[in-house]
Design a protein that fits this description.
Layout lengths: L5 E2 L8 H16 L9 H9 E2 L2 H8 L1 H25 L4 E5 L6 H5 L6 E6 L1 H7 L9 E5 L17 E5 L8 H14 L2 E8 L3 H8 L14 H4 L4 E7 L10 H9 L1 H5 L2 E7 L1
Parallel strand pairs: 1-2, 3-4, 3-6, 4-5, 6-7
Antiparallel strand pairs: 7-9, 8-9
Length: 270
């Protein structure tokens, strides 16, 4: 990780890079809680080093409540990742749509693990101002739907694919092709979240139709691809009982089952 102050003032408000900054800020904010769920101190350190108007992000992102939408999901995926790496010390990790997430710095995998963070070139250019490639960690600037970046990834080792907050922004046909390319080359596990089938319709009303795909029964994906085998599923909001602020915890409780079924975390073998 580079040590100097990093100028992010060129990041345009509302851009993909800005969205990544918001997510980074929320993880950093939550890390300062007395009983932090995620404990993302790497995010807090990154925010301290970035020259940007985070006060404006704070005003717009409502971190008192929204921090948990990010950190509860990340904590579940971290736990699944850590369990896989404990079983496979020689693993390759593909973190698709990594944004500015510092998952490899939170988990601190053993040096025998090869970790690849993949995102669009503009996001990786920004990320490269914060982090450095090493012998065991590398960033790749490419669209996940472009098959050519896979040529840079070694095969023949247990492979963990993580796609957090990504697949819902692809068309279903793109999701199918991406999973097919991955399962053709690698074996291991896939961790990803999926949204309700209502999500694309709601997105047309509220978010300019940026959400392209949703699915109700995720086990349907086994019929797309015979190499995919469902293992387990949980709500991205599971564990809200750990929220330390009583009022916020009550908000999440009152949201009820429909809200907790909207964003689901999935673990598959392949």
């Amino acid at each position: 990780m580079t040590a100097d102050k990093v100028d992010f003032s060129s990041v345009r408000w509302g851009s993909v890079e800005w969205t990544n900054l918001v997510t980074l800020y929320l993880r950093a904010y939550e890390s300062r809680s007395h009983h932090s769920i995620l404990g993302d101190h790497a995010a807090a350190e990154a925010v301290e080093r970035i020259d940007y108007d985070f006060k404006r992000i704070h005003r717009s992102s409502v971190p008192a409540t929204n921090q948990y939408l990010i950190t509860l999901r990340a904590k579940h995926l971290d736990d699944w990742c850590a369990a896989f790496l404990q079983r496979h010390a020689d693993a390759v990790v593909l973190h698709l749509g990594c944004g500015l997430d510092g998952r490899p710095f939170r988990l601190v995998p053993p040096p025998s693990v090869l970790w690849f963070d993949i995102d669009k070139p503009g996001v990786i250019a920004l990320r490269s101002r914060l982090y450095d490639d090493t012998e065991h960690y590398r960033m790749i600037g490419a669209s996940v739907t472009d098959p050519h970046w896979l040529d840079q990834i070694p095969a023949g080792r247990p492979t963990l694919v993580v796609a957090e907050g990504l697949l819902m922004y692809l068309q279903e046909s793109e999701v199918r092709r991406l999973l097919e390319r991955l399962t053709d080359r690698y074996s291991g596990e896939m961790l990803f979240d999926t949204l309700s089938p209502l999500a694309p319709r709601l997105s047309k009303v509220f978010t300019k139709a940026i959400v392209k795909w949703g699915i109700g029964n995720v086990r349907e994906m086994e019929t797309w691809n015979p190499r995919l085998r469902f293992v387990e599923q949980t709500s991205a909001l599971a564990g809200y009982e750990k929220i330390e602020t009583t009022a916020v915890r009550l908000i999440y409780k009152l949201a009820g089952t429909p809200a907790r079924r909207y964003d689901m975390l999935n673990r598959f073998k392949h």
